[in-house]
From TrEMBL:
SUPFAM superfamilies, per database record: Aldolase
Protein name: Dihydrodipicolinate synthase family protein
Pfam family, one: DHDPS
Coiled coil: none
Family: Belongs to the DapA family.
Alphabetic keyword roster: Lyase, Schiff base
Keyword rRNA processing assigned: no
Length: 292
């Protein structure tokens, strides 16, 4: 097989809350400190896995700052995307003031943004970032905002340093890569289970929510891709797929239950989702025992 020495694994990290739903910054810091022991290429903070839509701006900045302390500023992507250009621009400026060296911004959400609004949104964020790299973030299923491959190329031309594409399989990621027509812009996929597939197409790697709780199998995939070890990659891919399946495709309640298995404090959800059932918790514990 080919070798992919630049294949990267970025973990999308969760935010931990207490039993009343208040931000538990101490538990969040503990989770980040534990994960920072793994040789990840970066962490994506206060994104979908981090339940960012439920956080205040101050909470988002505090969580991102905590990650920067744990992983170092060069490995921390502060998510500053918001429903409006106004809010995202304010978060961008505040993040830069706090020392952010990498930013990421989801497209505007809830209202389906027009092409002109998208271009203005990213032009503004790139300008407000004052030289700090800004990565675009596409997730049509959660935002209602659709970005065609051709439009992505125009968005990249606003000065984006890279792109994350979530909710799309490797075939769709391939079409985005083709539309960029050789631009030297890293493209990341949010498809945890397709790490090898998207890298083979030319993507820079994955931004993986499941790896925030179960980093080992995804690091094994990354290292096998870098070394070109076919046999090791076969085993690692199966282990990574098991991790994705065991956590319900990265279900937040399941991920937080795995963190408990790793000795971290229990965390509730702010997102309007059901907690993990006792039956699912028992099955999860058995399924991930050799993946921790």
């Amino acid at each position: 097989m080919s070798t992919y020495p630049d294949a990267n694994l970025i973990s999308a990290v969760p935010t931990l809350f207490d039993s009343e739903g208040a931000l538990d910054l101490g538990a969040t810091k503990a989770a980040y400190a534990q994960l920072a022991q793994a040789p990840l290429d970066g962490v994506f903070v206060a994104g979908t896995t981090g339940e960012f839509t439920t956080l205040t701006d101050d909470e988002r900045l505090a969580v991102c700052a905590a990650a920067s302390d744990a992983f170092g500023p060069d490995r921390t992507y502060w998510h500053v995307g918001a429903a409006s250009r106004h809010q995202a621009a304010g978060l961008t400026e505040a993040a830069v003031e706090r020392g952010a060296r990498r930013l990421a911004a989801l497209t505007p959400h809830y209202y389906a943004a027009t092409e002109s609004a998208l271009l203005s949104y990213y032009e503004t964020l790139v300008a407000r970032a004052a030289g700090v790299p800004v990565y675009g973030y596409l997730f049509e299923a959660r935002t209602t905002t659709s970005v065609t491959p051709a439009l992505l190329a125009r968005l990249v031309d606003t000065g984006l340093a890279g792109v994350k594409i979530s909710g799309a399989g490797s075939a769709v990621v391939g079409r985005y890569l083709a539309a960029l027509d050789g631009r030297a812009v890293p493209v990341y996929s949010g498809a945890d289970a397709e790490f090898a597939e998207v890298v083979d197409l030319g993507a820079a790697g994955v931004v993986s929510g499941v790896s925030s709780a179960l980093p080992a199998p995804f690091l094994e995939v990354r290292d096998s891709l870098r070394s070109g070890d076919t046999a090791a990659l076969t085993v690692a891919r199966e282990r990574a797929r098991r991790a994705v399946a065991a956590t319900g495709q990265g279900n937040l309640a399941h991920l937080k239950a795995v963190l408990e298995l790793r000795g971290l404090p229990a965390s509730g959800l702010r997102a309007p989702l059901d907690p993990i059932s006792p039956e699912d918790r028992r099955a999860l514990e058995a399924d991930v025992a050799d993946l921790l």
